[in-house]
Write a structure and sequence with these properties.
single chain; mainly beta; 8 strands; 0% helix
């Protein structure tokens, strides 16, 4: 399957910025990668529920200087992905995460 690219913004207890997801959707799973425009990113994996509209996901930051793991949920439509997340990295807890992405045409 061809990957789809989702671009948008995130905001959490650490700050805000630009975010990109590159996803391959299966019948009940999603896999791919995520990146911050400012650096950081890594693999993303998740499961789809609710007819493919609800995504439970896990993101790993594989940046050597500050690895971390984040988990969240998102609602997906054909063109938008809106969700919340939290997790930990080398600095400590990350909370109140929110992301809003749009499918890049």
């Amino acid at each position: 399957m061809t990957p789809s690219v989702w671009i948008g913004r995130y905001q959490d207890s650490r700050g805000a910025g630009d975010l990109t997801f590159t996803l391959v959707r299966g019948t009940s799973t999603v896999s791919g990668t995520w990146t911050f425009r400012t650096g950081g990113g890594g693999p993303l994996a998740g499961s789809l529920e609710g007819g493919g509209r609800r995504l439970q996901f896990r993101m790993e930051n594989v940046a050597a200087e500050c690895p971390g793991t984040f988990e969240g949920t998102a609602e997906m439509s054909d063109t938008t992905l809106v969700g919340t997340y939290g997790g930990r990295d080398c600095v400590g807890a990350v909370s109140s995460g929110r992301l809003e992405l749009r499918l890049r045409e």
